[in-house]
Amino acid sequence: MSDPVVSPVVSVVIPAYNGATLIGETLASLGDQTMTEWEALVVDDCSSDHTRELVRNWPDRRVRLIENAVNGGPVVTRNRGFAEARGQYLAGLDQDDLCRPERLARQVAYLEANPDVVLVGAQTEQLVEGRVLPMNYAAHSTPDLIRWLSWIENPLAWSTVMVRADVARRLDPFTRPELLYAEDFDLYHRIAAFGRIARLDEPLLLYRQHAGGVSKRFIETMRASATRVLTEAHAPLLGDGASEVAHLLARHNMGGVPIPDGATLRRLGQAIATLQSAYLAQVAPDIESVKLIRWETARRWRQLARAALRSGRVTLGDVFASRPPHMGLGYAGVEDLLGWRMIGLARRLGQNRGAMHASSNDQG
Fold first, then answer.
1. One-letter-per-residue 3-state SS of the chain
2. pLDDT in tens, 282-338
3. In a domain, 241, yes or no
4. One domain, residues 15 and 143
């Protein structure tokens, strides 16, 4: 049994709600950390299962249970944990995710070596039905790339985040409850006023994919909150057009919903190009970061074009007409484009046949 650390280097905050089936593995992953000077604050939000009992009886005394008197939701619950944390660094972790053994040590070392960085995340892998698979995050990063990506999407998995406690306490509240399920995305924008945001490119977290996960159950709420974050972020540059652009980014770039027509594809392409030009002028990244920014933006444009073509809703002409010249199409070649278009045409033909069949049945 490990004794509680009087002055922990890291406080790991875990909001919990009916997590008894998975939280044990999460806590065990903390017990395997190479850094031992940590505390884990599990804040239970009035679970109806045996989460509280499991945590209360956890054999590692570095794990501390905090119980909400009333159900407050995940953001309020997380904020309470951060308010009671004693560590020099604060780490986020959801009740169903798993830390690699080097996670805390690597992130603390990075923050101590880079005093201008206030928040650091890490590369993430996903756990799907027992299989470890890559996720669609950028393979390589710099702080300037991570900041750029925050202009068009959420660049970090929350369960990888570590932040300096003294900076976190300058935010009131730490995360905003009104931006439910995008409060982390909002935090990255707000905390950037105090320093740089970075990401370690080594996979230090297993993100568990399952039907009960928040990202699966509250998609529309998450999308609406992300739209608000991006609207606020881009209003100074885009003015009244910020809301429309934010909606398109949240729905299509972040949400993966196929773009419905060529006009929307052109509007989103123009918007991303405008934002990227403004970002490069404002930040003046180094050469390595500029290359990564251009490549990752092109990769996202490829994904948007692929989804739109495969849905049958846009044509090859729409894709080429809407593509900003510097954006390219990632690794996509003519064969890829033609293949995606053929899939789209087949789907459209199937939809038309289905509609005709339904119409004939109605008339009969």
1. CCCCCCCCCEEEEEEECCCCCCHHHHHHHHHCCCCCCEEEEEEECCCCCCHHHHHHCCCCCCEEEEECCCCCCHHHHHHHHHHHCCCCEEEECCCCCEECCCHHHHHHHHHHHCCCEEEEEEEEEEEECCEEEECCCCCCCCHHHHHHHCCCCCCCCHHHCEEEHHHHCCCCCCCCHHHCCCHHHHHHHHHHHHCEEEEEEEEEEEEEECCCCHHHHCHHHHHHHHHHHHHHHHHHHHHHHHHHHHHHHHHHHHCCCCCCCHHHHHHHHHHHHHHHHHHHHHHCCCHHHHHHHHHHHHHHHHHHHHHHHHHCCCCHHHHHHHCCCCCEEEECCHHHHHHHHHHHHHHHHHHHHHHHHHHHHHHC
2. 999 999 999 999 999 988 988 898 898 888 888 888 887 877 766 665 555 556 666
3. no
4. yes
